[in-house]
Amino acid sequence: MNLEDAKNKFIQSWGTLGSQWGINRTMSQIHALLLVSAEALSAEDVMEQLNISRGNANMNLRALMDWGLVTKEIKPGDRKEYFFAGKDMWEVARKITYERRKREIEPILQVVNELKKENITGKNKEEIAAFSDTIEELSKFTNNANSIVDKFIKSDENWFYKTLMKLVK
Amino acid sequence: MNLEDAKNKFIQSWGTLGSQWGINRTMSQIHALLLVSAEALSAEDVMEQLNISRGNANMNLRALMDWGLVTKEIKPGDRKEYFFAGKDMWEVARKITYERRKREIEPILQVVNELKKENITGKNKEEIAAFSDTIEELSKFTNNANSIVDKFIKSDENWFYKTLMKLVK
DNA sequence: ATTAACTTTCAGAAAGTATTGAAAGTTTGA
DNA sequence: TCAAACTTTCAATACTTTCTGAAAGTTAAT
């Protein structure tokens, strides 16, 4: 298989995947493109290779930089900005996890911990008990999940890698 | 705060959250509603409490049953079907993880492992090397992630709970 | 200070998803 | 066997998200 086809297959798949990971398709595709490019690419390059508009390229490159997955690079004697992606997958995973935790864990933590503090009133005692139990269980669970994810985000690659791999054995 | 308001707050939040977890809003809301109900509810009950159509209620209750998060219950002497949600959060997490792995990890595994086997041809050797390195790293990473998730899905609650909690300390 | 090279913004268009509700299908009891 | 009680389906519609491209903004060299 020639390089172009292989790249395209990868970019295509990574794009689809990304959209299921809650990351938009173009953002994942740009990320994929930069991951498999030896050189940093300009916005123009990205637009051409993925057939997307200037606005779309710009927006998603910025988002990738916000996430810390992509970095700008200035080449001396050239006014264009060039972009490249970090290739360390554990780093990539950590950065994606960080962003997703913000969106997926923190909000539920907040609501659940708030509800836990409330004194629930009402006539149906059974229903109140069911509600409080669920909230209590959920609170425990979410707080634990959050701690684990936090550990992952902050841990250095090797330690976490080794520890987890021991689990799997 | 009275029970109704607390329930609604929870259902609302769980719904929004779910949509960020790649689960559709109504599906999460129904799940939340059943999680905090002491009794099993009929499709009619669900429609009323969430203000959704019959079709929507039906579709999403079925999806929840496919995921194994909700179970049908027949009450003797009643032709309606009643639905209730399992309250064990580790079980819930395992089931959601199982479904999400199918969507989020398996497809990338397949593509990456396929690409890894290919013999990439082309003139730019540097580009080929960059591509192969990325795929190789990604393959290692994804396969490891998959093993860990698999372990989680199959593990019994206590073992995994204890092991993970030790990590966090 | 001007202008050419580039980047950013944003309103409208397009694409993608979820929801409705009416009609068709199924089951159960008499 | 019939019909009432319920469940399922699906085409049309509404809603949400993403993308485009032209216009505005910025920067750097002369």
Structure write-up:
Two copies of one chain form a homodimer. In chain A, 72% of the residues lie in helices and 7% in strands. The first copy, chain A, is built from eight helices and three strands, in the order H-H-E-H-H-E-E-H-H-H-H. A three-stranded antiparallel beta sheet of chain A has the order 1-3-2. In chain A, helix 2 packs across helix 4 (54-67) and helix 5 (89-104) runs antiparallel to helix 7 (125-154). The longest helix of chain A is centred in the C-terminal third of the chain and has 30 residues, at 125-154. The interface between A and B is large, with 61 and 61 residues. Chain A binds a DNA duplex (30 and 30 nucleotides) through helix 4.
Quickly describe the structure.
Chain A has 169 residues and is mostly helical. Helices cover 72% and strands 7% of the residues of chain A.
Task: Count up the domains of chain A.
Answer: 2
Rounded to the nearest angstrom, the radius of gyration of chain A is 22 Å
The general outline of chain A is: elongated
Question: Would you identify the regions of chain A where 5 or more consecutive residues have pLDDT less than 50?
Answer: none
Compute the average pLDDT of chain A. 90
Most extensive chain-chain interface: A-B, 61 and 61 residues
Count of distinct strands of chain A: 3
- CATH uppermost class of the largest domain in chain A: Mainly Alpha
**What does the oligomeric state look like here?**
homodimer
Give a short account of the largest sheet of chain A. 3 strands, antiparallel
Report the helical percentage of chain A: over 70%
* CATH structural fold name of the largest domain in chain A: Arc Repressor Mutant, subunit A
Named CATH architecture of the largest domain in chain A? Orthogonal Bundle
Separation of termini of chain A? Answer: 35 Å
Order of helices and strands of chain A: HHEHHEEHHHH
Strand arrangement across the biggest beta sheet of chain A = 1-3-2
Q: Structural class, from helix and strand content of chain A?
A: mainly alpha
What's the name of the CATH homologous superfamily of the largest domain in chain A?
Answer: Winged helix-like DNA-binding domain superfamily/Winged helix DNA-binding domain
Strand content of chain A: 5-15%
